[in-house]
């Protein structure tokens, strides 16, 4: 414990709303304020319950920084109409991120079991070409998040940092960055070199731990320190890129969701101090 | 159906014993003989029930080829004594593969939650240096099998083809090959180039499918055609390396294990004919 000063924790820690999935946006913001957390990662379904402009006002009044909005992307779809609907949904997500003055809009690129993998990956290339210019006009930084390869069949056909870099290369780093999440990237045998190549593309750093054995493909994520990921080693790699922004704690875990949220906040702050 | 002639199926199809996990080795061999399957992948716990030399005699009498023995490897261990025990177990596995005249001994390199990932990967390098010379003397080809990254915490710290190639480079391809398994490699964004780099290192090709959603991290594998992997596309890449050996059907799936084995054999042969 105590590697971080309490001021450093306050400056860097961001609560991703999915860690306290049962809280509404106003409840999550209130929880951050009471626990001294200065950054929050918001999810769109919770923004939309409140309404974007009410949410933006509430955030502004709170003085809390929106480190990210989750999420755009989801480009692959077997039909052209379906793909067009996804593009329009991305435009809406960009508008929301702009209203909330979020540091970035996270892109989970999507996957569709009925679309062959190479085709799906091309749909991501094509989708980015549609939305990046719109985001630049809106002043929103997009950020590609590679997801763990176990999600390649149904959530994201973007599964490595190097693939994210290849997708991002045509665009300015201020327009299209990359989100690094310990859960998704820790296994990569060339991790250090891949993170180093991200340089100014790093748009966010998410932390949680990999439990052994993995309890569930989606819901089995652990608090930092509960699993096998050497988070400080990865944080050092991210620090070395020059990234100094918020570090989001994003944990999909049913037992956390069943806990009183104040207890979750205490656990998040303590495990961040000790294991990040 | 019918992409393969029945003769071609007989020549290439290998039944990995884990697909009919409830059968003893004599039962699995009998099942192959009755269904016209000419190759089998054996597991050591089933070999050891019979005794290595009795198993070798039984295999010889059957005329069936042993495409692989599963498995050696499992190098990482926090203690030096533990690691030495693993090396000795590999020597025993090599002796068994030699007695059975197997095409290769599959190496699943292992992982240990108490050993940091970079250290575990070094233990694999060190372990290979110990066992490859022994295997060469015994006339056994070793074969590294990269496992899906979701197993990096508890089963294998070798998770990509490129990493397998880096580990194998110091050794002759006839001494240390690589097993390509569709379930473990299909997600790789640079798959085609990685397989092409394997050239003469390809020591085996395993097929099964990735179900969506994934029912279970270990037991959720599907029959070919039941999931999202484009197996013929990957088979073409493997064919292009010049590999002409057995193609093993290895499926960990509890519902298959609950089925009468003759029914499983029929399903394996039919899905191989239609979807490989």
Order of helices and strands of chain A: HEHEHHEHEHEHEHHEEEHEHH
Low-confidence stretches of chain A: none
What count of helical segments of chain A does DSSP give?
A: 12
Give me the Rg of chain A, rounded.
Answer: 18 Å
Structure description:
Two copies of one chain form a homodimer. Chain A is α/β, with parallel strands linked by helices. The first copy, chain A, has one domain: Divalent-metal-dependent TIM barrel enzymes (TIM Barrel, Alpha-Beta Barrel). The first copy, chain A, contains twelve helices and ten strands. In chain A, the strands form two sheets. The first copy, chain A, has an eight-stranded parallel β-barrel, surrounded by eight helices. In chain A, strand 3, helix 5 and strand 4 form a beta-alpha-beta unit. In chain A, helix 5 runs parallel beside helix 6 and helix 9 runs parallel beside helix 10. The longest helix of chain A is centred in the middle third of the chain and has 22 residues. Chain A is globular, with a radius of gyration of 18 Å. Chain A starts with 5 loop residues before the first helix and ends with a helix. The model of chain A has no long low-confidence stretch (mean pLDDT 96). At the A-B interface, helix 7 of A face helix 7 of B.
Short note summarizing the structure:
The structure is a homodimer of 276-residue chains. Helix content of chain A is 46%, strand content 16%.
